[in-house]
Amino acid sequence: MGKHRLALLVGLAILIAIGGVVLLGGLGNNSSTGEVIAGGVPDTEEAQEIQATILQAYKLYDIAGRTFDASQFPSVFVNDPDVPLTRDQRERLQEWFGAVPENAGYLTYVIACYTDFTRGAKLFEEAMANARAKGRDYLTPDEWRRIVELHGGRPPAPRLQPSMTVEDAQEMQKTLMRYDLIDVEDDKARVIFDDGATLNKATLVRRGGKWYIAGVERLAVTGP
Amino acid sequence: MSKYSRRKALFVLTGVGLVAMLFLGASPLILSASPQTLVGNYNRGAAESYADAWTCNNCTEPHNPNYNYYPNGDCTNYVSQVLHAGGYPYRGWNPWDIWHWFHYNYWYVSETWYNTPKINQYFSLYPNEFEYRGWPTQLNKGDIFLFDFPTRDNIPDHAAVIVGNGGGLRDQHTVPRKRVPWDAFVPQGTAYWSVHVKW
Q1: Top-confidence residue, B38 or B66
Q2: Residue A7 falls within a domain, yes or no?
């Protein structure tokens, strides 16, 4: 009996020790936030070019959301075999198109994302146009269910229709951007930035003297 | 009745009793809730008052102690509280079922209550109660809108509630904002789901 009690106490002590190690390890881990705090933004021409490229991406997101025109994305984004998509991004591609294309990189991902968005937004617009033709400015539950079904069971988001012009929105975006780290090594740059609502880690590559975004991984939603 | 039959009956009765206790103990509303369409009358004024009461600007985020609080992402939890304050009732009992929506206590809360993509799916499943509109400017106070920020995945990242007569303003958690213009501080290129509460 005494032996059993001793074994039980030893077992409990081991469990507590393991728990303590796990807890301390968790508290002290080198998180992305730690990187951000330790990082910096050099005052160089190439750092400014990198910032301009990232800002331009927001302009193109806006244009594509308003017009469904994603044709300018290759001027800012690129597929790079050294910068693979994240697991979440691969899963999204699989969900949107049933497969992940070979050699898919961030350019493929962004185009696919807006293709899927456009598909949903057009379903919404067509359904609304039909409803208006019938004298309604709303969708019936059956009409809504139909477009959700056609959109793979996901509620589609409508086209962007802000009152602000793209240029004014770009000026506003400049005030929201915060760069925590720009680390350039040869033709590759690692950037951590907050766009006003999300904290992101981007990888940019330089090709022909111009910077392109080869990957963006969201680290956190910081809230607008 | 044989000894075996009595044991079997006792086992079944105990099971039924435990299930009944779970249901009745959690909330009597569970018994009235069903995946059928609910019929009610959303009180937009009450929803707005609640929204205003539990947020602020440039402050430590306030939270109602009667509900869970998620300091790293409380937006949808807050929006759910506003919806419930407007009279929209809990539905169902299964925390992982997107047809259900409830917060009975700290441990017993549905994913649709606090998870932004899940609440969007929930809204979408009940078009008799929630109507998706084209843009947040088409919403009224007490309505909900969801954001997909520009580093996109076509899944909502954030939720807020429309306030102000005629709409146009928003309240939210994470970060706390009170009566700011509905699109203030929002990155360029953000997409929205604009949900009008019809219930």
Answers
A1: B66
A2: no
For residue B27, is pLDDT > 50?
no
The 10 Å Cβ neighbour count of residue A115 is 15
Whether residue B146 contacts residue B159, with contact meaning beta carbons closer than 8 Å, is answered with yes
Exposed, middle or buried, B163 (CB in 10 Å: 0-12/13-18/19+)?
buried
* pTM for this prediction: 0.83
Domain residue limits at A128: 39-221
Mind listing the pLDDT tens digit for each residue in A182-219?
999 999 999 999 999 999 999 999 999 999 999 999 99
- Test the A interface: residue of B70, B138, B173, B188 with most A CBs within 10 Å: B188
Q: Shortest CB distance from A62 goes to which of B147, B188, B193?
A: B188
Question: What pLDDT, in 10s, does the model give residues B66-78?
Answer: 999 999 999 999 9
* Confidence check on the interface: ipTM exceeds 0.85, yes or no: no
Place of tokens 């594509």: A64
Whether A160 is in a domain gets the answer yes
Count of the separate structural domains present in chain A:
1
Q: What does the alpha-carbon distance between residue A81 and residue B49 come to, in Å, rounded to a whole number? A: 53
Contact check, Cβ <8 Å, B188/A198: no
Residue of A nearest to B116 (CA): A221
**Alpha carbons A31 and A118: distance in angstroms, whole number:** 36
- The alpha carbons of chain A give a radius of gyration, in whole angstroms, of 24
**Residue A61 falls inside a structural domain:** yes
Is there a domain that residue A18 lies in? no
